[in-house]
């Protein structure tokens, strides 16, 4: 069980959205270890009013409602006309709605219900730097947070994504689709992406890490978890006495069971 100290550590900058594709996952003990939850309504066939209400009462982080279109990797083929009837019954128990560009006309109505909009775009290719910037501007036109998931083709694309994320003028979630460059998922958080998506029991997109895997990556990659050996001063000139005790104390707080 992830030690609470790990989740509460303000240094942890790789924050996890657990993407849920079945109400059975709502009852997982791992739910509490996510920073936010995404309910993939397009992948759920039965009504979830009661299950979502119970989830709302048991989870204190943001809950996102997503209806991913079949054109962008999801299972929803109902078009924009039916979207409102599908999502409106659940608005009282969620905080944000993920809206693709094709559904942007619903943004103001969602905001009028005091819900935030994650304006999203998912592509199986890799846009250039300028196209990425234009896409960010388009998404910012209707979203409180922008989200872009693209498929890098080479390491240069990864550098482009990291640079675009780190210079993005808006609150951004940047992700990669596919498995070849999945390692970029946690790195994008180190360069400014607000969250990375993971799964609890079944992946909702190729290349996703499980929440357990991402917790470990978050622990190992987040600057606050680097051994306090240097503590900002070179070992040679610093007084290294007490390092072992300090690092053992530090590690005690972060023990995994
Ligand atoms: O947009 C995203 C990111 C995602 O596609 C992923 O690659 O992890 C998973 C989706 O559920 C989510 O809505």
From TrEMBL:
Gene3D superfamilies for this protein: Aldolase class I
Domain of life from the UniProt record: Archaea
InterPro entries: Aldolase_TIM, DHquinase_I, Type-I_3-dehydroquinase
UniProt keyword terms in alphabetical order: Amino-acid biosynthesis, Aromatic amino acid biosynthesis, Lyase, Schiff base
Its EC number(s): 4.2.1.10
Signal sequence residues: none
Pathway: Metabolic intermediate biosynthesis; chorismate biosynthesis; chorismate from D-erythrose 4-phosphate and phosphoenolpyruvate: step 3/7
The reaction(s) this protein catalyses: 3-dehydroquinate = 3-dehydroshikimate + H2O
Oligomeric form and interacting partners: Homodimer.
Function: Involved in the third step of the chorismate pathway, which leads to the biosynthesis of aromatic amino acids. Catalyzes the cis-dehydration of 3-dehydroquinate (DHQ) and introduces the first double bond of the aromatic ring to yield 3-dehydroshikimate.
Listed name of the protein: 3-dehydroquinate dehydratase
Lineage: Archaea, Methanobacteriati, Methanobacteriota, Stenosarchaea group, Methanomicrobia
Gene encoding the protein: aroD
């Amino acid at each position: 069980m992830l030690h609470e100290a790990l989740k509460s550590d303000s240094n942890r900058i790789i924050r996890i959205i657990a993407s849920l594709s079945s109400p059975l996952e709502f009852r997982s003990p791992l739910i509490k270890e996510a920073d936010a939850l995404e309910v993939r309504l397009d992948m759920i066939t039965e009504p979830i009013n009661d299950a979502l209400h119970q989830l709302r009462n048991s989870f204190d982080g943001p809950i996102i409602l997503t209806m991913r279109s079949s054109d962008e990797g999801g299972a929803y083929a109902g078009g924009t006309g039916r979207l409102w009837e599908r999502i409106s019954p659940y608005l009282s128990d969620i905080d944000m709605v993920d809206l693709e560009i094709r559904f942007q006309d619903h943004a103001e109505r969602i905001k009028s219900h005091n819900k935030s909009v994650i304006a999203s775009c998912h592509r199986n290719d890799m846009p250039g730097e300028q196209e990425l910037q234009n896409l960010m501007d388009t998404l910012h036109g209707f979203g409180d947070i922008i989200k872009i998931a693209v498929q890098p083709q080479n390491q240069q694309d990864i550098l482009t994504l990291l640079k675009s994320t780190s210079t993005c003028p808006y609150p951004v979630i940047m992700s990669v689709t596919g498995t070849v460059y999945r390692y970029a998922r946690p790195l994008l958080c180190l360069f400014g992406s607000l969250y990375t998506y993971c799964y609890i029991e079944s992946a909702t997109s190729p290349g996703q890490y499980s929440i357990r895997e991402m917790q470990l990556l978050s622990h190992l990659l987040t600057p606050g978890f680097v051994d306090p050996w240097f503590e900002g001063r070179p070992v040679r000139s610093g007084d290294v006495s007490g390092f072992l005790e300090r690092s053992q104390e530090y590690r005690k707080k972060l023990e995994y069971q």
